[in-house]
Structures are given as structure tokens and as C-alpha cells.
Amino acid sequence: MRLKAIIFPIFLMLVSFSIYAQTDQSQLQYSVNGTVVDAETGRPLQYVGVSFTGMRYATVTNSDGGFTLKSATEPETVDFTLLGYKTVRMVFPKDGTPLKVKMPKGNLTLDGALVIADPYSVLQKAISKIPDNYSSQAELFDCFYRETVQKKNRYVYVSEAVSRMYKSSYYRGGIYGDRITVDKSRIIESPDKRDTLAVKVVGGPTQAVILDIVKNNDLLTAEELSNYILEMGLPATIGDRLQFAIKLIPNNSTPYPLYEGVIYIDRETFAFTRFELDYDMRDKDKVTQSILISKPAGLRFTPTRVSIRYDYSLSEGVSRVSYVRSEMRFKCDWKKRLFRSEYAAISELVTTDWHSGDVEAISRKEAFGGREVLSEKAAQNYDPEFWKDFNIIEPTESLDKAIVRIVRKTDRN
Length: 413
What we know:
- With 413 residues, the chain is mostly beta strands.
- It contains eight helices and 23 strands.
- The chain has one domain (3-22, 108-412).
- The strands form four sheets. Strands 9, 10, 11, 12, 14, 15, 16, 17, 18, 20, 21, 22 and 23 form a 13-stranded mixed beta sheet that branches. The protein has a four-stranded antiparallel beta sheet with strand order 4-3-6-7, with no helix packed on it.
């Protein structure tokens, strides 16, 4: 199973639905919400890591800077971390007052060793430290997953799920025993007949397993890295920790599309902390062959962007997956028609809690399959309290409005 060949497989076809089994979770009675902005400009900050100090509950902010985080026990403080910004800690508001968090940019003093370090040596050391920096025992993660599809600026559908993800020890390596479930899910889908062309993202939340580059380390082999030029970029901070930034530049012709992007590595521990990678789009035929499984006859498909982001966070001396995001943008048009439609398919998963020690593996029968499609498993449900007992990624204001419009159209039909 090669990573480069399995990012963003999709179907382009009519969507159908069925009911999927749902389970309950004990109520999370303590909650905090608010927005996070840049302290200088007031601009909302997205992808900010939000967690309760000393606890395992976590989420990320949406593109409006908004967040909600819940806990089963009363927290004392809330932590906010973001690449290039100083970590902010705020007192948990017991009266439920929303927090307005202002994050100052980090005053990074450039360290010559970070700038002139040999990127190949840094990367090789990080690879050799994988058994030390990642979990040596099996762990179970609680997750929230969302995938959205937009036709131009209009949402076609939204699929969401609460999942459990089992990950075996990094010491042994390999993802083949790692699995993920879908325990509760829903879909909100446009009834507009003009949206009959829809996108199915194959595998749904299993991306968090497949795209774990540290564990599914096809990209980190000597053979694969020989296809790239590595350059040291400007250093950065994540959670007040200095990071090497290594630029990945494609430098070879291969049967599959290569990446371009940045790999962040912790200066102190040499742990991989973030991968920000885009497909090299110069040969769109290669990209299409890598991501497209099926489409209706007569439909022309042109990808314009394919990207992934995979974050790890440090907790109790161990780096663990915290956030995964994939994005695909493409154009579709039918032969003999003049106009193209632009689509965007975005998937994101956040780990909201984790458990280590004596955890039970997820069986193949229980696991969500790598070739399954969440939109076919989820139930249509418009209840605004659907996720009240779970930590989620808060929907953006535009997504909230889109859901209201879809529900109104559905009711009229």
C-alpha cells in the first residue's frame, strides 16, 4: 500500500443513503466556547489547537476562529497553540462566558543552527528517532470527522461522524493493524436536482490511518526521498517549541505525482510535528490517475489542487496524531457543454481524546473500510443537538447557514 497512490480516491456519481448504527457517549457537562484572533490584526485564526490543561480533551478552531470544547470533569485552564504564535493559557470560565482569545505572534530569535543545518541529516535523525518519539504501546483515540463538498461557493453536502481509532505501537511500524470505526454519523445533503453530480470520498475517516506518514512511511524511504531536493526553510515555533522547517521540492519524473511542501521537525526531540504537502500539479493526468476511481461517461475531470496536512502534538512526552486535513479542488464539465463547474472536497479529522494502556483492538468486522463511503452509511438528521454529547470541530458561520438552507429546501420537497 503506497501512500502516494491512495490520497483522495473519489467517486463521481449519484449519491444514495442508508442508516448506520449509532452509539451513545456519556455526557460532557463542562463546556467552553469562543473565538481566537490575531492579537495585532484581529483576524480570526483557524486550525488553532484548543485543549484543557492537563487533560486529553482537544479540538481545533474553524476558519472563523470559532471553537467549542467539552469535558466530563471541570477544567481549570484552556490552552491555545498555533504555528508561529505564542501559546496562550486562559482560565476556564465557570459562568459559561465565551472566550475572546488574542494570540500574539512568537518573537522568534533566529538560531543559526536552525537555518544552516543540513536538511538531509535532520530528516534522517528524525526518522531514526521515530521509535523514541511515538507511542510504544497501542492506543485508542476518540475522533470527530467532517467532509464537505462545495459546488462553486455552495455546499452540496456535509457528512460528519464520531469515530474511534485504534493505533498499534510505532515501535513495530506499519499501519496494517490500525483501524477506525464510525459510531455515530449523519449527512446533510442538498435536494436540488442540479446537484445530481456529487463527490464520494472513499475511506472517509480512514485517512487518519492511511495518511500517518510517520508510520506509513513510504515518503520517508531513501528511495522516495531521492526524488526530491531538500532545503532548510525559516524556523518556526509550534506550542512555543522551536521547529526545523524542511522544504520538499520535486526533482524527478515518476509515474505518480510527487509532493511539494514543508515538513516540521521538533528541534529538541527530532519528532515530526507537521506535514504540509501539495501534489505537484504540473502533470494533471498523473494526478487524475492517482485520485480518481470512477466517473460518469462523458464527464471531463480536471484537478486543480490536492493537498494534505497531518499534525502531531506532544503530550506526556509522546507525539500523537492531533489533526488531519485533506483538500481536493477540481473542475468538471460534460462534453458539448460550454461551462465548467468548480468543486471542492474537504475532509478533516481531529482527535478529541485518547486512551493508552490496556486498550482493545478494533476488529475487521467493526472497522470502517478503506473502500467504504461515509455518505452511504450516514443517516439524514438535521437535529441541531445531534452532537451535544461529543467534542467536534465547530461548523463555520457559512456552513451553519448552508445547513439551514438545505433543511428548508428538504422540508419544501
